[in-house]
Specification:
single chain, 8-stranded mixed beta sheet, globular, 11 strands, BirA Bifunctional Protein, domain 2
Length: 256
């Protein structure tokens, strides 16, 4: 199968979310190709899940701090995208279910991380989602547990979300994207949440400290975006037996 790899560098939150969805729509319409994309964020951005209420964050405080606020085309909870490498996979649907596709992508990511020297693993969790989403901590993605997560030493390194786009003919395209933490800046999300009291803020900060890890902490050194992007490319090629083509990507004009 013909696959593309795109490293679009650091772009605005509006561009990043629009471009991910455009890749999915192009594949669905027959004008695009299956794609793995890696990108960063400039300026930092706080993204909300597709169905998440914007009341859960302090939008004015984000703007004063120079942090964009955007909505993802996928579900899940809020993420502060700061010092990270974000991946996006756009592929044709198959008879495989959501979890099966998620696991295939995760195994490619784990293989890419191993090339960095990070011994990550895909670990099974058993969250009780009705209880989980009643907790103030559930506002932030990296304090919420998924059924399967990429972890290092029992701590979450990658947060992902998935969506399927479908045509009336039954054709499906899968969009999955997620954050690979390069540093600890994601923990600053606590400053931008609307919470009932300071105890809830302290609890989220504690959960992030205890239950998440970044590549710098895992490797004991600073990790550059380009280094991660190349390892992710190699991880997908090795795990999936594919060879990417690449092309320069020109930033389109945004219509807001």
């Amino acid at each position: 199968m013909f696959w593309r790899f795109e490293n679009t560098g650091s772009k605005s939150g509006a561009f990043n979310m629009m471009y991910d969805e455009e890749l999915a729509q192009a594949l669905l319409n027959g004008t695009g190709s299956p794609t793995v994309r890696v990108y960063g964020w400039r300026p930092p951005a706080l993204s909300l899940g597709y169905h998440q209420s914007s009341d859960e964050i302090d939008v004015d405080k984000c703007r004063r701090a120079g942090v964009d606020v955007v909505r993802r085309p996928t579900g899940g909870r809020a993420i502060l995208h700061w010092n990270e490498a974000t991946y996006c996979v756009v592929m044709r649907g198959s008879r495989a279910g959501v979890l099966s596709i998620y696991n295939q992508i995760s195994q490619a990511l784990v293989g890419g991380l191993l090339r960095l020297g990070v011994h990550a693993s895909l670990e099974k969790c058993q969250p009780h989602f009705p209880s989980l989403y009643k907790s103030p901590s559930s506002t932030a993605c990296f304090t919420s547990a998924a059924r399967h997560e990429i972890r290092v030493g029992g701590r979450k390194l990658v947060g992902s979300a998935q969506r399927r786009f479908a045509r009336e003919t039954g054709e499906e395209v899968i969009l999955q994207h997620g954050s690979i933490l390069l540093g600890a800046e994601h923990k600053q999300i606590v400053e931008f949440l609307n919470l009932r009291d300071e105890r809830a803020r302290e609890q989220i900060a504690s959960d992030l400290e205890q239950n998440t890890i970044d590549l710098a902490a895992a490797l004991g050194r600073n990790v550059e975006f380009e280094e991660v992007a190349e390892c992710i490319r190699q991880g997908f090629e090795s795990a999936w037996g594919i060879r990417f083509s690449s092309a320069d990507v020109e930033e389109p004009t945004l219509t807001m």
